[in-house]
Structure formats: structure tokens, C-alpha cells
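tool_call: predict_structure(chain=1)
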Amino acid sequence: MEKKRILFIGPMPPPMGGVSIHILRLSRLLLNYFSIDYIDESKSIKSEFFNLRSLKFLQYFKRIMKSDLIYVHSGSRLLLMFHLISAKILRKKIILTLHGYPIIKRNLAVRLDEYFYSLSDSIIVVNEYILKRISLPSAKCIVRHAFIPPMMDDEADLPLFLKDWIVDRKNSGKIVICANAYQLRIYNSQDLYGLDMCIEAADNLIGKGFPLSFIFNVSSLEKNRELYEQYRNDIKEKNLQENFLLINEELSFVKLITYSDIVLRPTNSDGDALTIREAIHFGKPVISSDVISRPDETILFRSRDIIDFENKIIETVGQLSGSNIRHDKQKIDNQIFYKDLINSLLNKLEY
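tool_result:
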């Protein structure tokens, strides 16, 4: 029997971000059950994916027409509405995953979003906070975190210079701490991803004699390159170059997690952070801000509180332990959930 065709719409890696990684891993999980196609929205155009920015709208509509179900992960509000309208007009089943929703948004904009999102047949929200910010049909909504375990054979190894840097620090007795950002951004007049806090904590703790080395990767510099350069200068001025590596690399962050001892997520706003769930999956201690509810294993600090942040790092350094990978069960759970959800929508009769 011919497989049903699923069309994923959203950003495809590179650059590596939480949403693009989720789409790639989810689609690979479902390859045995469905025929998979993609529409890429990212600014980085790749030859292997059709990209909406090519403005080849005939191709766009052909892909929707050939598909049985449209699975939308778009981060752009206008593009998201465009996809939902197009799929609805062409009478396709639609799954929408909301990976986040702003805390503050004008009432009219929220009402408009509610109307368009409700065109979907099923809506997955990655945490319960989203449902407090926007009212959606309860019969269509599912709260489910976005984490899908990585298939490590598909993950590229770290660049040689980075592996050498890590090995050199560990050989000298340093504890390696990592963090990341898709791209640098100011939110509520603060650094969204907390790179400034990481630099300040490194300066304070290394200055007190703690044997620490930090790696912070920024996946994309399409925006706020000047902020990146400003932080590089800050690291140099504080004389942290030997033990604070700020880089812009298209790398597998999950691989970096496996090479590191501690993972940080000091954001001042968040959805369902892939970084946290990957760290937990590999048994790595992860220190995160308390801006939303986090998985139970997360070590929380008060958001933007540098003293509490540093104290949690100090406490964690003294409690390092081995890893515990739970890959197989999570893989099967995800396969069953998404396969059953898609099949239930495809088999649902229209009246």
C-alpha cells in the first residue's frame, strides 16, 4: 500500500535551532510509516530542500496538493497564516505545533491568531504556559514537549579545533561548561540567552580559583553580529580568552553536550528548551532560569540573578556524576504518539 504523504513546513537546518532540529528528528522518526516532504523557511537556502524564499509559488502549491497532511512549525506569524489558509483551501489535514507564544501581545493580534490557529485539525503546544496566553479549542489541543532524542549516528562530530580545546582543558583539570543560542537577541532590554551572565559568572568564578572553562556557541549571526563582537571584546578585556570560548559554528550541540560536564540555559524567556531535555537525556547536570516550568531534573536559579546563578554552578560542580541515557523508550514513545496522531487525522471522515 502506498504511504501517505506528510509535508513538513518550517525552518530546516542549518543553522541549528530548536525548531529546525525538532522537524528533522521527527520527520526521520516517521520515515518508515509515511512519505516525507519539506518546505524550508530559513534564510539559509539548501539544495536538498525546497525553500519558500525562492518565491516559486507554483511549486509551493504543488507540494501541498500532493500531500495528505500538512505539518506546520513556522515561526513567522504571516507565513504561518499563509500556510494554514493554503492548506485549508486545498482541503488538507493540518497539524500545527506552537513552539512558543509571546507573553505580551495586543489583544486584537491574539484574537486574530486564535482564529487562524483554529483552522488546524490538531494543535500541539510545547508547554502549558502557551495556553494561558492564547485561547485555543480544547478538543484540538495537546500539550507535549518538543524533545525528540537524537540519533547519534546522524550527528556530526565536533570540529577538530573544538575537540582539541575541550581535551586540553580537561587534561589540565578544568570542568567544561557549555551553553548556546540560535542567534543573539535583546528581550525586555536584557540578553535573551544570558550570554552576558555566562561571561560575568566565568569572570567571577575563575577569578576565585574555580577550575572552569566555558563554551558558548551562537548558531547564526544573521542578526546582531555587532552584539556578538561586543561580547568577544568583553571576553578579551576580562582576560578570559583561555577559558571562555565564544564561537559561531554550525555544529551538533548535542555532541557538545556529550563532551561537556555541565550545561547552562540562562534565558529570560523560553518555550520547551531542547537544550535542557538533551542534557537530561544524557545525564548531564543542567542549570536553567526559572522563567517557566522546567523538567524535574533541572537545577533552577532565579532568572537574571547572577549571585544565585553562580551559587548553582558552584553547587553543581561539587555534585558531578555519571550519565544515564534513556534513548530507546523515548524514541518508541515519540514514534507511537506522532504516528497515531497523524493516522487518526488522515482516517477521520469529513462531514
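agent: The longest helix spans residues 327-346. Proceeding to next step.
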